[in-house]
């Protein structure tokens, strides 16, 4: 029996990154709030800072935290 691989939208990932900032960089607290793995969230954060998070390549890391999600 195989596990289903969870997928998250680009919008969800961007909001999660913004929430890390709102939580003063506390990845573990943010992961708990979102009920996702701390490692997953940490990976997204690293990729966002590098500008390689899926769907965010056109944004610099500085702009990512300020991007408006509709």
Automatic annotation (TrEMBL):
GO biological process: DNA transposition
Gene Ontology MF: a single term: sequence-specific DNA binding
Domain of life: Bacteria
SUPFAM superfamilies the UniProt entry points to: TrpR-like (SSF48295)
Gene3D superfamilies, per the entry: Homeodomain-like
InterPro entries per the UniProt record, alphabetical: Transposase_8 (IPR002514), Trp_repressor/repl_initiator (IPR010921)
Xref: Pfam families: HTH_Tnp_1
Name the UniProt record assigns to this protein: Mobile element protein
């Amino acid at each position: 029996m195989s596990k289903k691989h969870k997928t998250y939208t680009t919008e969800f990932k961007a909001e999660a990154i913004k929430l890390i900032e709102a939580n003063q960089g506390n990845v573990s607290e943010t992961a708990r709030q979102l009920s996702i793995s701390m490692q997953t969230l940490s990976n997204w954060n690293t990729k966002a800072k590098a500008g390689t998070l899926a769907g965010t390549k056109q944004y610099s890391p500085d702009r990512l935290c300020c991007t408006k999600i509709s």
